[in-house]
Amino acid sequence: MVALGGELSLWNPLLLDWLVWMRKARPEIAIHAQVGVPDQLIEQLRTGVLDIAVLYAPKLLPGFRVELLVEEQLVLVRTADRDGEPAGSKHYVYVDWGPLFAAQHDASSSAFGEPGLMVGLGPLGLSYILRAGGMGYFRRGAAAPYIETGQLEVVEGAPEFTYPGLCRLSGSKRGASRRAGGAARPEASCEMIVAPRREAKWLEGRIATD
User: Fold this and answer.
1) Strands, E assignment, 132-199
2) Where do the CATH 3.40.190.290 domains begin and end in the chain?
3) Which CATH fold would you assign to the domain 71-163?
4) Is the pLDDT confidence value at 102 over 80?
5) Which one, of 191, 162, 194, lies nearest residue 56 by Cα?
6) Range(s) for CATH 3.40.190.10 in the chain?
7) How far apart are the two ends of the chain, measured CA to CA in Å?
8) I want to staple 134 with a disulfide (CB 3.0 to 4.6 A). Which of 26, 88, 106, 198 is the partner?
9) What phi and psi values does residue 27 have, to the nearest 5 degrees?
10) Does pLDDT of 169 surpass 50?
11) In whole angstroms, what is the distance from residue 90 CA to residue 197 CA?
12) Once rounded to an integer, what is the mean pLDDT over residues 123-147?
């Protein structure tokens, strides 16, 4: 069994695609999948509960191997009223995308003023402005469907920020890779997550039993 945890916003579509692909490509490997917040996932990885944690811009700690999976852009979007004019553009919703975003954002946030709402989860902030109106920074991929339908529009000239999605594994093969009963777990690799987006041959040799 491979135990994998990821942030909520990474499950659809990246990790969901991976689960479906693994079921078809390696049905003999059981998967334990769970959702969590970054600090919780890192602690579970450290204690051996998880084999792999997939997070956005996590803290860099010693003893872990980290690989880049995806690199998204955070873009400023706003809702539009029925006539196509900006609606609620002064109602700024601040999403906590982590310390790197906070530092970059603070350097260019004079135009926003004090946010009317601060949230710690991107999907929550996006759902809020879609219902109540406003603007905020969100992942381009998450906002794209609403931009296409005209519900949201990108604020031209606003700065954009890079937001990396990282795959993190413990630095060793972990004594925890064996269950209490002595059964071996497959060795986990970040390549397992990338595989559905590449040729199947990339997976060969990436999951080896102890």
Assistant:
1) 135-139, 152-154, 161-170
2) 71-163
3) D-Maltodextrin-Binding Protein; domain 2 (3.40.190)
4) yes
5) 162
6) 2-70+164-203
7) 12
8) 88
9) -65, -15
10) yes
11) 40
12) 93
**Strands, E assignment, 36-160:** 52-56, 64-79, 92-95, 117-119, 135-139, 152-154
Distance CA 7, CA 137 (A): 18
Query: Where does residue 177 fall: left (phi above 0), alpha (psi -120 to 50 degrees), or beta otherwise?
Result: alpha
Q: Spell out the residues 6+ positions from residue 18 whose beta carbon is closer than 8 angstroms to its own.
A: 192, 193, 195, 196
- Block residue for tokens 């397992």: 192
Residue that the structure tokens 């406003």 belong to: 134
Q: Cβ(138)–Cβ(77) under 8 Å?
A: yes
d(CA 141, CA 167): 19
Q: For 2-70+164-203, CATH number?
A: 3.40.190.10
What is 26-40 written as a DSSP string? -TTS-EEEEE--HHH
pLDDT of residue 77: 95
79 CB-side CA count, 13 A:
18
Q: Which comes out higher in pLDDT, residue 72 or 186? A: 72
**φ and ψ at residue 127, rounded to 5 degrees:** -65, -35
- Asked if residue 115 lies in contact with residue 93, where contact means CB atoms within 8 angstroms, the answer is yes
Structure tokens at 26: 């390696």
